[in-house]
Structure formats: structure tokens, C-alpha cells
Amino acid sequence: MSKFTRRRFIQLGGASLLAAGAAAGGDSPKSGPDRTAAINDGYLRKAALPEPKGPRVVVLGGGWGGLTMARYLKKFNPAFDVVLVDRKSLFISCPLSNIWMADQIPMEFLSHSYLDAAKSNDYQFFHASAVDLDRASKRLYTDSGYIGYDYLVLAPGIDYDYARIGVTEIEEQYRLRTEYPGGFIDFSEHLAIKRKLHSFQGGNFVLTVPAGNYRCMAAPYERACMAAAIFKKRDIKAKVLLLDMNADIRIKKDGFRRAFSTFYPDMIEYMPATEISGVDLDKREVITDFDTIPFDDAVIYPPVRASRLIENFGLALSSSPQKEADVDQFKYHFRDDQHVYVVGDARPQPFSKSGNTAYSEAKYVAELIAAHAKGKEIPWRSPQTMCFSGVRIDPLEAMSIIAFYQYDKKEKTFEFDRVHMIEKWSVRNGQAGLAWGEGIFRDLFYS
Ligand SMILES: Cc1cc2nc3c(=O)[nH]c(=O)nc-3n(C[C@H](O)[C@H](O)[C@H](O)COP(=O)(O)OP(=O)(O)OC[C@H]3O[C@@H](n4cnc5c(N)ncnc54)[C@H](O)[C@@H]3O)c2cc1C
């Protein structure tokens, strides 16, 4: 268990946080050890939040999982004093961002204010970055002070794992993330990719599909369709090279194959089983075990892992190759601590890493925590995966999947249960996808 100390704080980069503290006011000495100590004390102070009026539940991460947790914790137990913490001050949705890139919806559709969410649902939003956790004293440390908790829910999402495509040097990783962003975490990446797609002058545009349990199984294939649709509309001579580290399309296989050949036969070249072992950024080449693939521009989506925060907090499952959290698979609490929970894409269960999975799962875990606070239990229920994939634009046509999970006692793992897949794209399904997103945003932010 980590213990937060001045020494540890400095190791974590406290010195770089000092400037922000000093900027906020105070008479800290200008330099030297006194200044370091004074500002460390500033970060070891209590966060500026009203005193809790009931058992405090801190939710770290205001994405799909965290926003749902915060809302439904209040719903299941209005006495909870809920604080949602995120390092961003604005929510912009990753789901539906591919069709935004192809101008099928405006940015306003995807962006929503944490202030609206907090006000509508009677919880507090705290804009800060989490830096450490002390489970002994039940404190989450942030760059704006610590917050004491009765329960803590972590929903920090994912990080990229560039080492798994052979890019290990920090400088190379930085260049790759900056010049060819994957577009699966931060909206700055999405904006950069949209600009790329709308200014591409022609040639080979590489997109990659990672191996492992990556975020949103269908999204890289959908993005290939949207990229090709944009190039087609712009009437440029471009090829989308879709390099898949998997043996075949991972989901909605027949639908995507048909969409590629029906709408983009000379544009999308699908290359399965492409084991990427490096990227030569200067030559603009993807390196595989057998070949090099040149590109004019690219979106390199590497394999993913749970947010590094899980590992830094000492909560990662040592046997998990993706460093996911060591939580009870049915009750979601950390192995030996029923006051710390993990939901969303940082979980270890092999569920689809998707927004609707995080949304439905967080409702269950919120109810579970509310029950635990009353000394009760509730039965496990499966999360629900729901995913719409646009394949054609103007008007938007989409395919969809809805699925649940069941536990296979013999294999000791989860598997799909009751899968409803629609691989025949339609305008109606395109509209259904928009209605799905709108309904969830309304639930989390405005009701
Ligand atoms: C292009 C694209 C298309 C997708 N399409 C679909 C789809 O059609 N359907 C679907 O269901 N899902 C889809 N997804 C997947 C979906 O976005 C994710 O699965 C979902 O966001 C996971 O929720 P989460 O809460 O685990 O993580 P996130 O939503 O990523 O939230 C994590 C939050 O934690 C915050 N955070 C992290 N570290 C810290 C820290 N140290 N301090 C403070 N805050 C921190 C982050 O700022 C972030 O807000 C898509 C994703 C992408 C990128």
C-alpha cells in the first residue's frame, strides 16, 4: 500500500506542480528547500471542498464509467456525498467521434459540461489530477490537495502500450503519439486526426488495429470506412491501408467485409495478421516481421493497457498482460479492500472495453456500493455491450451489436450471452446510434 510522503511527492514530480501552487497565491519562498517544503505542504493539504454531509464516495475519472457512477450512487443512496474528480474540465465523448470526423454530427453533440452533470445530479465536480492513493488513511491525493473517502471508485480508463509494437524509446513514443496519434483516449488526438483526414492530399493512409482486448472492438474498422468516405467525398486519390494485428476482423466481420467491398472497393485494403514490430518515423514506414509498409500519413492505434494510475497505486493484477486492476470479478472491489472499486476499461474482466459496457456496469456497481453501505448484498448482473458502427455517410448508415455476458464456471471466464447483431447496415440503424448517444448524454448530464 502506498504511503504519501513529502519524499514520494517529490519523486512523483511535485516540483513541477509547485509553480501552479505558487501561482495560486501564498508567500512561498522564491527558491531552495524551504520553497519545496512549503509548496509540498500545499499539496498535502485538504482539497477545497465543502465538508461531507454523508458518507463520502470519491469517483476518480469522469468518463463513461465515472459519470455513470457519480449519478447512480446518488440515485441509489441520496445520503452519499459524491465527489467526481477529473483532470479535464470538459467531457467530449469518444463514442460517435468517428462519425463526427466525417461531419455527420456537430461537436456540440459530443461535448458536455461537468458542471451541468454535477448540478443535475446533486454531486460535486472537482477538477484535478489524481497523483497518489493512501488506502490506510483513505485519502486520494490530487494536485489540488487530498480528499478523504469512505468509498473510492476508480474509473481512469486506458493508456497506450507502444512497447507492444516495438516502440520502446521515450522520444520515439512521444513522436508517434504526437505525429500519428491513435485517437482512442484524448480528444486532442481526435481533432488532429480529423484535420489529417480533411487535408490529406492523397497516397497511402495507414490505420492500425491493435491486438489484445483493445478499446471498442469495432471502432478501428468503422474509422476505416469513415476515412474512405471522407476521401471519396473529397475526390482524392487515396488508399486506406488497414493493418490488423489480428487474424481477422474482430467483430461484425461479415458486415465490415461487405461494406469495404461494396462502398470502398479500390480504397480500403484490409491486411489481416499484420504483426507490427516497429515504426520508422523518419522514413514513414510501418515495420512488420516480413515487410515494410510505407505511408504518407497514418493513425497508429497501438495495443492498450489499463491506465498507469492503476499500477502506480499498487492495484494492478500481476498476471494481467494489460496491467488491469486486481478486483473481484463479480463485486469489483480491490482484492482485500471493500472500500476501493474499479470500473470501466481498467477492469480485468474480458468484457468489451466500451462506453455502454462501462455505463451499464457502473449502474450495477453503484447499487452494489449503496447496498454494502447498508450491510446488504445484491446479485451479480451482466453489463451490456452496445455498439453502432457507421459504414456510409450522407445519410449515415450503420450496423449494430447488443450483447450480454455469462460466466462459464468450467472455463472460469466470461463469454458472450444473448448477442443481437445487425450486420445489414441501414439509415434507421444510423439514427438508432444517434438516439442511443443522445439518450445517455441526457441521462448523465441533464436529468
Ligand atoms: C473512436 C471511438 C469510438 C468508440 N465507439 C464506441 C461505441 O460505439 N460504443 C461504445 O459503447 N463505446 C465506444 N467507445 C469506447 C468508449 O469510449 C470507452 O470504452 C469508454 O470511454 C470507457 O469508459 P471509462 O470510464 O473506462 O474511461 P474513459 O471514458 O476514458 O474515462 C476515463 C477518465 O479518467 C480521467 N483520468 C484518467 N487519469 C486521471 C487522473 N490521474 N486524474 C484525474 N482524471 C483522470 C480521464 O480524463 C477520463 O475522463 C469508442 C471509443 C473511441 C475512442
- According to DSSP, the number of beta strands is 23
The ligands bound in this entry are: flavin-adenine dinucleotide
CATH architecture label name of the largest domain? 3-Layer(bba) Sandwich
Described by strand count, sense and barrel closure, the largest sheet is: 6 strands, mixed
Helix percent reads 25-40%
SS content category:
alpha/beta
Highest-level CATH class of the largest domain: Alpha Beta
CATH topology of the largest domain: FAD/NAD(P)-binding domain
CATH superfamily of the largest domain, called what? Answer: FAD/NAD(P)-binding domain
How would you characterize the overall build of this protein?
- The protein is α/β, with parallel strands linked by helices and 447 residues long.
- Helices cover 34% and strands 27% of the residues.
- The chain folds into three domains: 6-43, no CATH class; 56-157 and 307-380, FAD/NAD(P)-binding domain (3-Layer(bba) Sandwich), CATH 3.50.50.60; 163-304, FAD/NAD(P)-binding domain.
- Mean pLDDT is 93; it is low at 1-7 and 9-26.
- A six-stranded mixed sheet has the order 5-2-1-9-20-19, covered by helices on one side. A four-stranded parallel sheet has the order 13-12-11-17, with helices on one face. A three-stranded antiparallel sheet has the order 6-7-8, with no helix packed on it.
- The structure holds flavin-adenine dinucleotide.
- The site of flavin-adenine dinucleotide has 36 residues, from helix 4, strand 2, helix 5, helix 13 and strand 21.
